[in-house]
Amino acid sequence: MDLGLLCTGGGMRFAELVDFAREAETAGAAAFYMAEVWRSGFVPLTAVASATSRMRLGTYVLNAYGRSPLVTGLSAIDFNEYCGGRLVLGVGGGNRLINEQWQGIPHARVLTKMAEYVTLLQRMARTRLGERIDFEGKVHRMHWEPAIDPGPTPFSIYLAAVFPDMLKVAARVADGIACGATLSAPYLREVIRPLVDLAARTAGRDPATLRWNSVAFIAVDEDRERARRAARVALCHLYAPLPHPYYEFTMREQGFTTTVDALLKLAPAGALEAAADSIPDEVIDRLVIAGTPAECFARIKDYEGVVDELLLLNAMGGDVQTSHTPLLALIRDYMK
To answer: What domains are there in the chain, each with its CATH number?
Structure first.
């Protein structure tokens, strides 16, 4: 299993982000991904590409409602050329809050849209000079010929999915499954993977051709309780200022309905300390990676054989350098 890093870009200037990526590559990280939340996806990655040479570089994930398939495809082709073929393109449908409140775009026909969106990106990544795409879908249409050759090796396209119907779409059309945070290794192994395997076989596809990524919040500190508190605070921010439907679903599915109810009441009201106090130890033990370096190392190994790549999202607070140093040391120990 490879280890990658997921960066939101929040609280970091470009210079700090690039330094972090450079240090991550030196530490042995296999990949570096940007979440399109506080920053855009491709612009920070372009800066990172200029400072690195080995790591895969990915979006995790681009919002498909904010970009047409053409714009996403052209951006991906350009970036893949610039970074020397290291792109992993993660896309997703977002959710009703992000699409309608942040962007003013109707959150409609999501399953059909994402199936067609990924299909068009697959076509664009593989359409060489002199060839043409003619596609008429229920949501998207494209009649297009490339002016720039995308090259002989297409970039991989991962579809963000956790709800069963979207997982089935991903099993049909994507190169990989982009799972999010708060998913325990047993839940991935016993619930999500069997569902996707069945959907792939039903579609006439070998499940072994699918790649698997998942995200884990991680808080590494020699002070075990400080790390676990940081993880609790990170979970609270998933529910404030507005709750994210993805995390509510995954936590309820894994048996933590009482915790979700408390977080929905406390976090949006700004009572973050009380919200953090409401999170039991079992949630920290199962849904995040938090503790001493030795404890975190052992928890990472739980995901071996379940996902191909685990993306670590740093939950420790403090200044950039101090908070990332123990995480990079852990990656160095694991990847050597």
So the answer is: 2-219+290-335 (3.20.20.30)
